[in-house]
Design a protein that fits this description.
The chain contains 17 helices and nine strands. It has 364 residues and is of the alpha+beta class. It has two domains: 170 residues, Beta Polymerase, domain 2; 189 residues, cca-adding enzyme, domain 2 (Orthogonal Bundle), CATH 1.10.3090. A nine-stranded mixed sheet has the order 1-2-9-8-3-4-7-6-5. Strand 8 and strand 9 form a beta hairpin. Helix 8 packs parallel to helix 10, helix 14 packs antiparallel against helix 15 and helix 15 packs across helix 17. InterPro entries: NT_sf, PolA_pol_head_dom, PolA_pol_I, PolyA_RNA-bd, tRNA_ntf/polyA_polymerase_I. One of its GO terms (biological process) is RNA processing.
């Protein structure tokens, strides 16, 4: 490789041991200009205060794959309390793992986390950047980009795995999904969206541990489902979730309806709805309630549902979506979108039939 350096550390007996690769811009091709200016501002202030800070995770992975990241997450050695003191419009959130949202507008924020310790028993124990790398889920998510030197720091061969399009877990398979079952959803999403190849052992483990999704809180599952719906490639991800046997544990009522329908028109419509949604997301023309319209259409088109009073339909639809729990206003708006569209179609059909009758009478 051209511009790659090796970092070493000394063992107790004074022997130098390589522990990280440093890739220059000639190797990875990511320029500072590709980084969100708000993220650069946050990193610059952290550095000025004497703290190491990097762009980390999905943003680095996506840029290496030629995609434009939606989020630019930052990791630093500064503790959440110190970050909050540096940024007046910052909020410390999370009970399981504390992190900071640094607000750059009323609604937009940059997410900042602190290097995690190797101690898996305490999610809020802080450590070094190397420890942090080994606490991440997959090697492709454990790359650290310095926007000022334009270098990538790699402790786990993640750079090579991105180039080879391989999804390699960092945490041992006997712990990875027991610690956090949501990692199964993310693995399948990376596989479907980025065509990252999974080793057979990982595929088998996902299928064996699929039931663990039922232990995850509704709020976390809702967050992950929204990420899938808004990714612009939801149709591919839903297909993959079904192949990996995760769908029935993620959305059991939806799975039951699709399963009862058997292959054919309902499945075709389901895919068409998500392909339409993906196009809208990629064009940037989708409201939040529109993200759940495919579910609303599948639900409303079941036998007898159209005849229900709206309040009953609304309650039944919320139950149908569980454990996915969108805001009430989005549930209401999605149902009304579908019902309005159906009414317009019925009116058009009546107009066509009326015109045909008039034509027939005229011809008579």
């Amino acid at each position: 490789m051209g511009n790659v350096r090796i970092r070493y550390r000394m063992t107790e007996d004074g022997t130098p041991v390589p522990f990280a690769r440093v890739y220059g811009v000639e190797e990875h091709g990511i320029r500072r200009e590709a980084i969100d200016h708000h993220a650069l501002m946050v990193i610059r202030r952290l550095r000025k205060a004497g703290h190491a800070a990097y762009v980390v995770g999905g943003a680095v992975r996506d840029l290496l794959l030629g995609k434009h990241p939606k989020d630019f997450d930052i990791v630093t050695c500064a503790t959440p309390g110190r970050i909050k003191r540096l940024f007046p419009y910052a909020r410390v959130i999370g009970r399981r793992f504390r992190l900071v949202h640094v607000y750059v507008t009323k609604e937009e924020y940059v997410e900042v986390t602190t290097f995690r310790s190797a101690r898996a028993d305490d999610p809020n124990a802080y450590g070094s950047i190397e420890e942090d790398a080994f606490r991440r889920d997959f090697t492709v998510n454990a790359l650290y980009y310095d926007p000022f030197s334009e270098e990538i720091l790699d402790f786990v061969d993640g750079f090579t795995h991105v180039r080879e399009r391989r999804l390699v877990p960092i945490i041992p398979l006997d712990r990875i999904f027991e610690e956090d079952p949501v990692r199964m959803l993310r693995a399948v999403k990376y596989h479907a969206r980025m065509e990252l190849e999974m080793p057979k052992e990982l595929v088998r483990k996902i299928r064996d541990d699929a039931w663990r999704l039922e232990e995850v809180s509704a709020s976390r599952l809702t967050e992950e489902i929204y990420k899938i719906l808004a990714c612009g490639e939801a149709s591919s991800v839903w297909d993959a979730l079904q192949r990996f046997h995760l769908f029935d544990h993620l959305l059991p009522h939806v799975h039951e309806v699709l399963g009862a329908a058997g292959p054919g028109i309902p499945h075709e419509r389901w895919r068409e709805e998500f392909e339409r949604l993906d196009r809208l997301v990629r064009e940037g023309e989708v409201d939040r309630d529109a993200l759940i319209v495919p579910f609303a259409r599948l639900f409303v088109e079941r036998d007898g549902m159209r005849e229900l009073p709206f309040k009953e339909l609304y309650r039944a639809f919320k139950e149908f979506l569980r454990p996915f729990t969108p805001p009430n206003r989005d549930v209401d708006a999605a149902l009304r979108r579908v019902l309005r569209k159906r009414r317009r179609k019925r009116r058009r059909r009546r107009c066509v039939r009326h015109a045909a009758v008039q034509d027939a009478r005229g011809e008579g």
